[in-house]
Amino acid sequence: MKSYLLLLLCCLSFSSFGQTIPDPGHRTDFITDDVEFNSAGITLAGTIFKPKHPYGAVILIHGSGQETRMLKMASLLAENGIAVLTYDKRGVGKSGGVYVGPEAGTNNIDVSNLNLLALDASAATNALIAHLPANHGPLGFIGFSQAGWIIPLAAKENRNVNFMILFSGPVVTTLEQLRFQFYTEGKPGFWETHTEAEVREHIRSDADRYQFAATDPRDALAALPIRGLWLFGGKDVQIPVNLSIEHLDALKAKGKPYEYRLFPELGHNTSFSKSPDPFNVAIQWIKSGDGNMNRK
């Protein structure tokens, strides 16, 4: 159980994105609509944020944990002219289904659960498209932490997706991430007493404490034709950032349109509450058109 409780930290660091927004009835730059949509036999509940003239659209994908819709993040995006659908994770808030995670004594990074959450993300994509004008611009995913495994699966499932942005999204297998997280124990000062070489050796050779099939995001990433942007904190103790960057570089060398930005002074939490820089980079990346790549 301890391992899965550790994994929960990957989500909790982004909880500030779920805070309540000001009354949308007093907004002039966007409107909101509560919606419901079906996925894999259950009904999910969410909110769509619609600017007057959107030049892009995104679906927000959760990290691990019992996450409801990310209203603050959605509001920030809508203020910048981006339409958003954010929804309660299955089994949480007003969404149906069963939540899988450490609080329930279950493995939330099991292959079956990650695939199920990817189906939910794909269904959310279709729901957002149904509520937008035809000229809504490029459409993509923005996700956090555990979404680094979910989004590539969902993007492969849904051909309407043009881009993806990952805040602290791992580009390693689920088992490798657990090895790293067990090693750091989530200690903020970990990198003051350990080297990258020690981390790499531990990830390579440490015995797995739990036995389940690993998910490798590179399998889906190698097959995708869409653009991607990863935003990393240099002091992250939840995912192995340098190894993730190395894997992205290998994919880039094979022609994949993937980019990353490293913020040396940030940790796993690259949310707006810690620094506006990662969010601003994401907005600029979408506005520049780097997120727009039509799929063939």
From TrEMBL:
Domain Serine aminopeptidase S33 residue range list: 53-172
Keywords: Signal
Signal sequence extent: 1-18
GO molecular function: carboxylic ester hydrolase activity
InterPro entries: AB_hydrolase_Est10, AB_hydrolase_fold, Hydrolase_4
Name of the protein this chain belongs to: Serine aminopeptidase S33 domain-containing protein
Lineage: Bacteria, Pseudomonadati, Bacteroidota, Sphingobacteriia, Sphingobacteriales
